């Protein structure tokens, strides 16, 4: 059966992957309310398409932190990709590069920054967890810089790991034949079996719970790379990120894996965009599965989006070819959405192209022009 949309990869991946691995990728925190909501919230945004516009030529290109990419669809950091496929992050890096877009490598990758750089050219960002041992952090950031990574995505929503009950039930741990490659030489590459989730125990032991805004300032003293703050959901924190010198914000709830009952990212987006006041770009991840979702995020003010689970599920099913196909399908759907909405380039996508169920009743009928 031909795969015709991104969602279809998940069901096939579920059949193919060991239960512990599939559950690790698929699950969210606690009741998984936010996990469902990340998807469902998109369906509460409808289109107001404009007609009789020449859409024979459509330009989806954009720039992110000064880097030109083919489309506003990028690859989010997802951990331990070799659990999905033997080529893991290598395959994802090649697929993102072939699609002309950005890949974000997870701190907890099963391939190192150097290994990913060795796959060839490509614009790559590095997602950073701040360890208690700051020498480890400084070393990692320097290695990413040396390997040609162009930005740091600092994850700020994980002072502790969210409660992911399937990982507790499965006693999740990294399979013995894999290591967290970026930490291999530092004796931090292995995860022990624990009587709950091995990852939760690892985080409790290694990740710094004291992380605060002053650490963002410290990070700026050790690297010239632009820093994206990943995990912002409120206007207050958006304003603080701007003040602290962040180069951008990623509106993210960590794929609904941290605090359950936070809003869907697409719901939180507009508040963050308004608070940022155009001073720094705002991106989104969480629940994006269709080209229509990408358009909705851009209409609400995002400069681009990141996809996570679709990458690991397609990687599990078809390796590099699967990731290429996901990026291609999303691209084609987004292009079609633009054409049918009457937009020929990204700057033509406006708030007037959508209506949401949180718009005031009169605004639903006649938006401000």
UniProtKB/TrEMBL annotation:
Active-site positions on this chain: 254
UniProt record, GO biological process: defense response to bacterium; hydrogen peroxide biosynthetic process; oxidative photosynthetic carbon pathway
Enzyme Commission number, as recorded: 1.1.3.15
InterPro entries in the record: Aldolase_TIM, Alpha-hydoxy_acid_DH_FMN, FMN-dep_DH, FMN_HAD, FMN_hydac_DH_AS
Metabolic or biological pathway: Photosynthesis; photorespiration; glycine from 2-phosphoglycolate: step 2/3
Subunit structure, interactors included: Homotetramer.
Keyword terms: Flavoprotein, FMN, Glycolate pathway, Oxidoreductase, Peroxisome, Photorespiration
Enzyme class, spelled out: oxidoreductase
Predominant location category: other
GO cellular component: peroxisome
FMN hydroxy acid dehydrogenase domain span: 1-359
Family per record: Belongs to the FMN-dependent alpha-hydroxy acid dehydrogenase family.
Catalytic activity: glycolate + O2 = glyoxylate + H2O2
Cofactor: FMN
The organism of origin for this protein: Eutrema salsugineum
Binding residues for FMN: 77-79, 106, 127, 155, 230, 252, 285-289, 308-309
Binding sites annotated in the UniProt record for glyoxylate: 24, 129, 164, 254, 257
Any Pfam family matching the protein: FMN_dh
Protein name: (S)-2-hydroxy-acid oxidase
